[in-house]
UniProtKB/TrEMBL annotation:
The keyword Nucleotide-binding does not apply. It comes from Pyronema omphalodes (strain CBS 100304). This is Similar to Elongation factor 1-gamma acc. no. Q6PE25. The keyword Magnesium does not apply. Residues 92-216 form the GST C-terminal domain.
């Protein structure tokens, strides 16, 4: 089968995990070309398709092509165009509403704090203990809500199988668990970790996450 689309990004970008899993669940092949961040994303021809000049960015191989930026929008689109649509995006208005809620939580309450923790580890910022403490305390607020939710349901949006709610939040935590949030931190949240491991056992998730060595 011909590839469905091209996803432009830098290698290892945690923002693309949810999209790659959604694509696999919908049997869509996605090409990840070599992309030189700082060079290719300022090329005028590329910017004419993606005016914000940010990655990730999706170009479909459909006629006409569809151009989408913003990782949550890309994930939504790839979830929406195949048979896993209802599982990933919800089967009822209530499910869809709850899933959207968690997608916004992932974007607003999880990802920014995880990136604050990761930047110094990736050599992209100087370590600042005060900033890190703030990020940890903000992250704890949402993680405590998750812990409570996961005492009541297997999946964050209380759906039968995992949904884009789970993929969005777990995609943010994935790099955090490898580089920033150590075992002592993770041990405080047993339901969160059970949920993360349950999700990681799925064949498509496993394939995209690869081998996971979490920080000791
Ligand atoms: N909310 C966006 C954030 C995208 C973003 O900030 N991408 C960074 C790389 S991780 C970027 O392209 N920055 C280039 C710039 O700010 O000019 C998303 O989730 O896709």
């Amino acid at each position: 089968m011909a590839p469905y689309g091209t996803l432009y990004t830098w290698p290892g970008n945690p923002r693309i995990l949810k999209s790659l899993i959604a694509a696999k669940m919908n049997n869509l092949e996605i090409v990840l070309p070599e992309f030189k961040f700082g060079k290719d994303n300022i090329d005028p021809a590329w910017i004419s398709k993606f005016p914000m000049a940010k990655v990730p960015a999706l170009e479909t191989h459909t006629e006409p092509p569809v151009y989408i930026a913003e990782s949550a929008a890309i994930a939504h689109y790839l979830a929406d165009v195949g048979p896993a649509r209802e599982q990933l995006l919800g089967a009822t208005p209530a499910e869809r509403g709850r899933i959207q809620q968690w997608i916004f939580h992932a974007e607003e309450e999880v990802m920014p704090h995880v990136f604050t923790g990761l930047r110094p580890k990736l050599g992209r910022a100087v370590y600042d203990a005060e900033l890190e403490a703030k990020a940890l305390s903000s992250l704890e607020r949402i993680v405590k809500v998750m812990e409570k939710q996961l005492e009541k349901s297997m999946w964050l949006a209380d759906t039968e199988g995992f949904s884009m709610a789970d993929l969005s939040v777990a995609g943010c935590l994935n790099s955090g668990f490898k580089l920033w949030l150590n075992k002592e931190w993770r041990d405080k949240y047993p339901k969160l970790m059970e949920w993360y491991n349950r999700l990681s056992e799925d064949a498509n998730v496993k394939e995209v996450y690869g081998e996971q060595v979490l920080l000791e």
